[in-house]
Amino acid sequence: MTKISTFNINGIKARTPRLLEWLDETAPDIVCLQEVKSQDKDFPKDMFEKAGYGVIFHGQKSFNGVAILAKGQEPKEIQRGLEGEPEDEQARYLEAEILDKSGNALRVASIYLPNGNPLPGPKFDYKLRWMQRLRNRAQILLNEEIPAILCGDYNVIPRDEDVFSVSAMASDALMQPESRAAYRQYLGDGWSDAFVTKYPAGGVWTYWDYQAGAWPRDNGFRIDHFLLSPIAADRLEHAAVDKEHRGREKASDHAPLWVQLRD
Length: 263
Prior knowledge:
The relative contact order is 0.16. Strand 1 (2-8), helix 1 (16-26) and strand 2 form a beta-alpha-beta unit. This protein has a single domain (2-261), classed as 4-Layer Sandwich (Deoxyribonuclease I, Chain A). The chain has 263 residues and is α+β, with helices and mostly antiparallel strands. It contains 7 helices and 14 strands. Helix 3 packs parallel to helix 5. The strands form 3 sheets. The protein has a 6-stranded mixed β-sheet. Strands 5-6-7-8-12-9 form a 6-stranded mixed β-sheet. Strands 10-11 form a two-stranded antiparallel ribbon. The chain has helices at residues 16-26, 45-50, 122-144, 166-169, 177-189, 194-198, 230-233; strands at residues 2-8, 30-34, 53-58, 66-71, 76-80, 93-99, 105-112, 148-153, 192-193, 207-208, 220-221, 224-228, 236-241, 257-261. The longest helix has 23 residues, at 122-144.
């Protein structure tokens, strides 16, 4: 089986020890990183190569940034950024072709969807436009009928079952009806939410804020997602969150999560 992980690292320089520790302990075959907060010239490519991973990255100084790692091979970059707004320079989308353990091609995208707060306003409008641009790209991948995985930090809480308190997050951009409706459109188009497939009752968190004792109180929510094309969804075997890593010293506010696909 091929293990694919996604991890919002919240600053690759600040979390280097935790990231290398996690890679060593969990040994994913493919990794999508978000919020690396490093421009391309400063990205620690050598660090990943020493750990046995080929890597491509789409960076931006101090903000955003996405990367894709593949164990023992170089990811073949397909696309960086989304079409539709040529003036948009935010580093939020990176897509690559990677071989699974049987030598068959997978299409994998690392996604860092805009947060959208505060709302209403231009940041929320940008979020919704970006979600439509992602949908346009996702439709192209569906039309190609290939095993594809769109994973990362979507900054959307899709269902009430995906948050510790509906009332606490009701006014946040992550849970607005428009955000949820845009996410549901992906599912309606044919993508499968891997964690809804494996945990339909919810209660699985991927993010805990640094404030208000969220981690010790387990006040979290699910905003990191795996969307699988029909061919990839047919191969889904397992899905889980490496929750324990959120509790380590100087950890990211997100936990890594992963799926395993049959080869």
